[in-house]
Amino acid sequence: MEQFPPRACPFHGAASVTEPGPMTRVTLGDGQEVWAASRHADVRSVLTDPALSSDRAHPNFPAASGRRVRREQKIKPSLIMMDPPEHGPARRAVVGEFTVKRLAALRPRIQEIVDEHLDAMLANESRSADLVSEFAMPVPSLVICELLGVPYADHDFFQSRSKTLLSHTVTPAEARAANDELWNYLDKLVTAKESEPTDDLIGRQIVKHREEGTQGHDAIVSLSVLLLIAGHETTANMISLGTLALLNSPDQLAALRADPAKTLGAVEELLREFTIAEFVTSRVAVRDTVVGGVEVKAGEGVLTLGNAANHDPDVFPDPFSLDIDRGARNHIAFGYGAHQCLGQNLARVELQVAFDTLFARVPTLRVAVPMSELPFKDDASVYGLHRLPVSW
């Protein structure tokens, strides 16, 4: 496979974001010194240690982007910021939306969406397209919109705000403005659904919490913001990166085409290889603890380097080789422990359908420009491609 360019490093003091090693001190872009965990076992330890908090409003919570969450910001109730005892009930309230049974019922619609966007792409007389804007982004965007009950007609609005929130290059004021605009948009949508609940995730959450007398309006808005952003950005980036990786690994792609049963394994290997949301699982110590043989004091931040952990040779032999038969389900691309990604199985279904359909229907698909000309998202919290020109 042609070598992918190295990712930009948002901190100083670590030799590489892809080579695991002992716990070490690093300095973030804003000057904060934190611990960095990069070995697979150490990252898992961080993500299951009750002494380490997920509260992004904590003044010492490590922010790889250099932007800290202010306590007055409206994203406070988000699941990813909660610790026990609040986290468990809040997660259980929505986890039923992502059961295997519900996703199986959704799969035919996902297939329809994939086919519709491929039809439109293949209708281009130039026999060329930007796979990101014409396929990888709209497919998961439409899926999450239908699941949540968000009008897809507004996708340009929420995609642009999501892009701003995930960027490392925007100013704090720009990030706050994007957050407020997205919050206000979903605040109005949830308010409308409270008057007349609809049969979608937001509507069902409203009915559920009204009947049980739990949570409240802001919690549902915050959940909606989280799921809307995570539900399209992450999967879209994995579709484009996965397509590029397989096209650059002809032996792996040939094996996949010869046996579609290998797609599930290929998805896991691609998730391991790219670990696109590397820094979303960081923590801050609320009391003294030990990680990887190092004492972490209360108030110290811990940055988890998921990409390095997923290339730990003690866990994944020859980690920089793409091997769709590796059986890499023990990767931590979706995090680990109580905060493991809520929508991970939805992402798996979308990726499987997208890859199976794309490579079956477009056997001559190829990347239209050299790797050196591809615009990778080194400026964002979620790794990916801004564009992927292809032809067939």
The total of beta strands comes to: 11
Instruction: Return residue spans where pLDDT drops below 50 for at least 5 consecutive residues.
Output: 13-17, 69-75
Strand content: 5-15%
Strand order of the largest sheet: 1-2-3-9-6-4
Ends: how far apart? 20 Å
State the fourth-level CATH superfamily.
Answer: Cytochrome P450
Radius of gyration of CA atoms, rounded to a whole number: 21 Å
* CATH architecture assignment name: Orthogonal Bundle
CATH topology: Cytochrome p450
Number of helices: 13
Give the ordered list of helices and strands.
EEEHEHHEHHHHHHHHEEEEHHEE
Count of distinct structural domains = 1
Look at the helices and sheets and give the structural class.
alpha+beta
Summarize the structure.
The chain has helices at residues 40-48, 87-95, 100-122, 131-136, 138-148, 155-166, 172-195, 201-212, 217-247, 250-258, 263-274, 306-309, 344-361, and strands at 11-12, 24-28, 33-37, 52-53, 128-130, 283-285, 289-291, 294-296, 301-304, 366-367, 389-391. The protein is of the alpha+beta class and 392 residues long. Strand 2 (24-28) and strand 3 form a beta hairpin.
Structure description:
This protein has a single domain (11-391), classed as Cytochrome p450 (Orthogonal Bundle), CATH 1.10.630. The protein has helices spanning 40-48, 87-95, 100-122, 131-136, 138-148, 155-166, 172-195, 201-212, 217-247, 250-258, 263-274, 306-309, 344-361; strands at residues 11-12, 24-28, 33-37, 52-53, 128-130, 283-285, 289-291, 294-296, 301-304, 366-367, 389-391. The longest helix is centred in the middle third of the chain and has 31 residues, at 217-247. Mean pLDDT is 90; it is low at 13-17 and 69-75. Strand 2 (24-28) and strand 3 form a beta hairpin. It has 392 residues and is of the alpha+beta class. The protein is globular. The strands form three sheets. It has a six-stranded mixed beta sheet. Strands 5-11-10 form a three-stranded antiparallel beta sheet. A two-stranded antiparallel ribbon has the order 7-8.
